[in-house]
Amino acid sequence: MKRVCTLIIIGTLCLSLAGCGWFDGSYVSVKPHWEPKQDIQSDTLSASDYLGLIDAMGEMIAKGTEEAPIVVADYRSGAVEAGMDIAVEYLMKTDPLGAYALEGVEYELGTSGGLPALAVKLSYSHTRAQIQRIRTVADIAAARQVLADALDSFATEMVVYVESYEPTDFIQAVQDYAAQYPQRVMETPQVTEVLYGSGSGRGRVVELQFSYQTSRDSLRQMKRQIQPVFDAASLYVSGSGSQRQKFSQLFGFLMERFDYTYETSLTPAYSLLSHGVGDSRAFATVYAAMCRGADLECRTVTGTCDGEPRTWNIIVDNGQYFHVDLLKSHESGQLKLSRDWEMTGYVWDYSSYPACVGAAAEEEPTEASTAPETTAEPTE
Fold first, then answer.
1. pTM of the full predicted structure?
2. Angle formed at CA 281 by CA 344 and CA 210, multiple of 5 degrees
3. 362 phi and psi, to 5 degrees?
4. How many CA atoms lie within 13 A of 31 on its CB side?
5. CA atoms of 347 and 309, how far apart (whole Å)
6. Alpha carbon distances (Å) from 125 to 191, 362, 363
7. CA dihedral 283, 285, 290, 292 (to 10 degrees)
8. SS3 210
9. pLDDT tens, 332-358?
């Protein structure tokens, strides 16, 4: 939405601000991300320089106020207009909260109670409720936790003021979180990111919009249905067996559930565990999550196999790293552990993953057993 700043200067006409009807607006109290620099002793704001104007209008923004007078009795004669130009430019482009909230600024120069004053009117590009919902966090680590909470609840937006902001790829962060927690994120949303504020200060407002193709109620139902499967997987490998045995047991638990159809789905974990439909990425992310739930170290690897996109796993067995491709293992009927030089036809970013150079990975047969009855029911 295009922002417009209208500066109306009436230098020769003194207006009685008390009678202009601009002071009956309602107020919404939110936590500002700065403290006013001046001690305002009444409901009337005041300013003696452009910094005071920034503080006064900043207080209006923090409260969601649309109209208010700002007394400028102590302002240097003839400098108010220039000060407003600076203050408005700063608030609408540099200040994080101002850049997020403001659509435009209008003002008239007149008097209030016999004192020189500005009648200021602010228009907003976001609603008062949206401004009120902004969460203030200390740093990017705290912002990532807010992001996790938003994705876990299938929220449609997230807006945070990050006091110590560092450049972050939030779109990639969404994808990484979805891959790490397939039991929580049923569908990876499309993400739109807008960053507000451009000054030398470290604070920024981050606005993320999430777009899902599946309804929120359906996503919640899917999540409830597959959680028992992940819980059962953890119980399935409990005991005193070796790490190799546990990796093999989880492989059997997952691969014996269905005669799988290898297709890509918008809801990978749910489609895999409820309908037996999934691609290599779905298998790898679900297997890694089940391993972590059983206190086994496992991660996913993204690359290609014979020129086609492929996702597989790297596991840590007694401190040694091995590649595991579940789909290839499924073809042979048992978990196959491979070292780097044994991954013929595979290509990946070697610098991003640990070297898999463990001792000879002798294959252990999957223990014959039937997985618990935890098949999720399809969503109606």
1. 0.80
2. 145
3. -70, 135
4. 8
5. 10
6. 20, 63, 62
7. 150
8. strand
9. 889 999 999 999 999 999 999 999 998
